[in-house]
Every structure is written in structure tokens, then in C-alpha cells.
Amino acid sequence: MRLSHCVCDCNFSRTIWNHVGFNNANFFADMEVNRWLKEGSSGPQSFIFTATIWWVLRHKNLMCLNIENRPLNHLSYNIHNMVDSFSHCFMINSHVVQVERFIRWINDNYSCTILNVDGSCLGTPVRAGFGGITRNNVVYYLSGFSGYTNDSSDILYAKLHAIYQGLILAKSLNIIELVCYTDSLHCINHLKGPTKGLIRQGNVTVCHTLRKGNQCAVFRPKLGVGLYTEMLYHVSPPVDLLYLLGMDADGTLF
Length: 254
What we know:
Layout: H1 3-9, H2 11-19, H3 33-42, H4 46-66, H5 72-90, E1 113-122, E2 127-135, E3 141-149, H6 155-172, E4 178-182, H7 185-192, E5 204-208, H8 215-225, E6 231-234, H9 242-249
Helix pairs in contact: 1-2, 3-4, 4-5
């Protein structure tokens, strides 16, 4: 298969390019592939061009080797997430002043039950794990969960699935009012978009926190990746989590 057909000319590839904003017919002009790659990767949209090339090729490999087909909105998330990483890595601005921030687990913004969730992709072959932990605002541990997604290794799906499972857990515990924290701003924006129907309860608030304020939830997906059952509830905290729970309870700053 020609490279140009694989990354640009086929209908599947063009659908992805159009979805991330490359809608100009001239973009698909018949030019030699090396020149097309050089112009795209050095132009004003070089970051998103390079990220889209990567994810078009990666997704085609996933379809061929794993029979795994991801929705366009998931691919778009992965592409824009990579663009953000490029922007942080290659940002050159000598006038930017680094401001030191102190981060801790947030338990005093709302007087209700607190749910911290996270999802991640680990291992070879890659497995997507997710997990969460519920506590009240005076740091008492209520319950937790961890698991893995058997049919996907998509990071966005894992993080959204953690929120979904956290809401199910809260309902089973008869929790009336809940604030859910995730360190994925992309998840927050996604839930505010067309998929906001995932959260129907008026007593649920979903908020963003930085990763250091979400460390107990970050611990959970690592447990999930290693599981042989897709879902496991923890009525008491695992021993390895006690140290992190203690730091959160003490209001430790990072």
C-alpha cells in the first residue's frame, strides 16, 4: 500500500483529517508524498499535522492487528492531546515566569461526598485500567473500585469509564450529593459537550484537579490493569494506598 494512500488518500484517512480541521481541497492536492509531508510538518499547523499522521497510522495498525475501531471523537481527543504535549515541549519563550504552586487533595470546596477518579494505559500489550475512591469531606474512606476495559486500550474511554463507574458506585451507596474530581481537563470538556447526557443527576458536580491532588485515584488504575476480573470493589483501602490516604488526610502540600 502506498504511504500517500494510507495517510491521506483513502476515505477513512480523509474523514479524520476533515474532523480535525483540514477541510481545504488543496490540502489533498496530488503532490509527491515526501513534499507533502515536508510542507505539512514545517508549516503553521505542523503540530496538528504531525499528530494526525501518527494517529492515522496507529489507528490503522489497531484496526488491522487488534481489530479495534475507535470513534472519531476519541481519535480527535488523542490528536489534540498530542498537540498539547508538543506545545509544552517546544514552547520557546524566555519571558515566561514559572510560578510555583502548592497542590493538595481538595476536600473543602463542597460539603458532600468526594469521588476521585482516573484512567490510564499501561503494560505490553497495552491494557486500559480505571479506578476511583469515595471519601467524605472529613477524609473518611467510604469505598473504592478498580478495573480494566477488556475491549479497548483508549485512554479517553478509560478516564470517562472511571467517572461512569464512580457514579454507579455512588448510587449504590445512596449518596445524595457528589463532587467528582478528575485530572483530565479533556474529560471535563468532553462532558460539557455532546456527551453531557452521561451525567443526568443535578446533584453531581464534575471538577478538574491537578494530578498531585488526585494521587489516590491515580493509584487505582494501576491495580485495575493487573486484575483478571473486569471490576473489583474495595470496601476497605488496599494496604499500599494507606500512605497516600494519610498524606491527603494531613493536607500534605506538593
